[in-house]
Amino acid sequence: MATTIQAPPAAAERHQLYEDALAMLMGTLFIALGMLIYSKTMLLTGSTAGLALLLSYVTKVQFGIIFFTINLPFYWLAWKRLGWKFTARTFIAVALVTLFSRLTDQWVGFTHLDPVYATVVGSGLCGTGLLMLFRHRTGLGGVNILAIYLQETYGIRAGYFQLGVDFAILAGAFFVLAPDRLLLSVLGATIVNVTLAINHKPGRYLGIS
């Protein structure tokens, strides 16, 4: 039997369609830019994408195949537990990040990018983008779906849960990444997830989609 999502507070104001669309557009643009900054400095991201990337380093299997396979059970969870609307929005968000990640590399160029600055700004962009998506009941696949489900069902903070998952992924990268990039990746994961933990508390934001 599917778990019922907690009903929003009576005072909650429903988002308009254009508000959901703008949040998805800006959120995915922020994340795509953050990921580009990460890629230019060889940092490892967290969540499902980070796990797929790490596994591709170890197994030599194409990243896209691993990423698609890992996400399958999470999309099923989203459909069964969080509803078809959430699942549809998540599919669209994943597609937009995929598209914008390719286009952003053509729109933006870097002649110099300090790794520490890249870590702080890149993770800040990703955290803010995810916050936009979360507040409009949209995930970015994989661990994001599970994090939202656990918060709405059991009250477990999405940011803290993702932080634990990201640390586990980064621990597995100990023998893959250079030590300085590993430490910066840990810092980046902390910034992303603390941003979510502070700003995505149950009941703090009452808008619903």
Number of distinct helices: 8
Q: How are helices and strands ordered from N to C?
A: HHHHHHHH
Number of discrete domains: 1
Instruction: Tell me the β content.
Output: under 5%
Protein name: YitT family protein
Subcellular location: Cell membrane
Membrane topology: Multi-pass membrane protein
Pfam families: YitT_membrane
In short:
By secondary structure, the protein is mostly helical. 72% of the residues lie in helices and 0% in strands.
List the helices and strands and how they pair.
Layout: H1 17-40, H2 47-59, H3 63-82, H4 84-107, H5 115-135, H6 143-154, H7 158-172, H8 179-199
Helix pairs in contact: 1-4, 1-5, 2-3, 2-7, 3-4, 3-6, 5-8, 6-7, 7-8
Organism: Azospirillum palustre
InterPro entries: UPF0750_membrane, YitT
Transmembrane segments: 21-39, 51-74, 86-104, 116-134, 154-176, 182-199
Write a concise keyword list for the protein shown above.
209 residues, mainly alpha, 8 helices
Summarize the structure in words:
The structure is a single chain. The chain has 209 residues and is mainly alpha-helical. It has one domain. The chain has eight helices and no strands. It has helices spanning 17-40, 47-59, 63-82, 84-107, 115-135, 143-154, 158-172, 179-199. The chain is globular, with a radius of gyration of 17 Å. The chain starts with 16 loop residues before the first helix and ends in a 10-residue tail after the last helix. Mean pLDDT is 80; it is low at 1-7.
